[in-house]
Amino acid sequence: MRKVYVLFIFLIVLSTACSTTTVYIVRHAEKQNETDTTDLTPAGYARADALAEKLANRGIDSIFSTPYYRTRQTAQTLAQRIGVPVVDYPAKPTEAIVNRVVAIRHKTVLVVGHSNTILEIARGLGAKPTMTKIESGDFDKLFRLRIHHGPFRRSVNFFPDTYGQPTAP
């Protein structure tokens, strides 16, 4: 009887060690200029609305954004719609947000970053995107990562997607 009890406890511990976290990563929407304090363009606000529409029913528990206006504005429509605050993280080093997200279990997270950080964040979380660079005019990428933490290993599935309407050059 003791062996059955020990096996039962072991199985419970093993099952609680497993978790799945879903992470969405996007670049901020279209911006007016290259300054750190710039607002989104009208197309950028439309893209932020499209992001909110796409993710509103996905169970987002946490929203992380760099402290720049353009990233916060990209996240804000969704944050207001689902009642989740936008939490700032430093744009660099990306290890700060990677470490924070890796520690999250059983949640769904949105991370809003920049063209020079979102691929780095995805790689830091264990994804293997095939693209090597986000172009300056490319605002429609939406990466979904499914991070499964098992008792003996971690696996990451990477699903690239797009959202919103393409902007005119």
Condensed summary:
By secondary structure, this protein is an alpha/beta fold. It is built from five helices and six strands, in the order αβαβαβαβαββ.
How are the secondary structure elements laid out?
Layout: H1 2-16, E1 19-27, H2 42-55, E2 62-65, H3 69-82, E3 86-88, H4 95-102, E4 108-113, H5 118-124, E5 141-149, E6 154-162
Parallel strand pairs: 1-4, 2-3, 2-4
Antiparallel strand pairs: 1-5, 5-6
Helix pairs in contact: 2-3
Name the features.
169 residues, alpha/beta, Rossmann fold, six-stranded mixed beta sheet, 5 helices, PGM_Phosphatase, Phosphoglycerate mutase
Number of helices: 5
Biggest sheet strand line-up: 3-2-4-1-5-6
Percent in strands: 15-25%
Succession of helices and strands: HEHEHEHEHEE
Cα gyration radius (Å): 18 Å
Low-confidence stretches: none
Second rung of CATH, namely the architecture: 3-Layer(aba) Sandwich
Structural class: alpha/beta
Number of strand segments: 6
How many angstroms does the end-to-end distance come to?
72 Å
Report the CATH C-level class: Alpha Beta
| Shape verdict | elongated
Q: Can you summarize the main beta sheet? A: 6 strands, mixed
CATH topology: Rossmann fold
Instruction: Round the mean pLDDT to the nearest integer and report it.
Output: 90
> How would you describe the oligomerization state of the chains in this entry?
single chain
What number of structural domains do the residues give? 1
In CATH, the homologous superfamily goes by the name Phosphoglycerate mutase-like
Protein name: Phosphoglycerate mutase
Pfam families: His_Phos_1
Organism: Spirosoma radiotolerans
GO molecular function: phosphatase activity
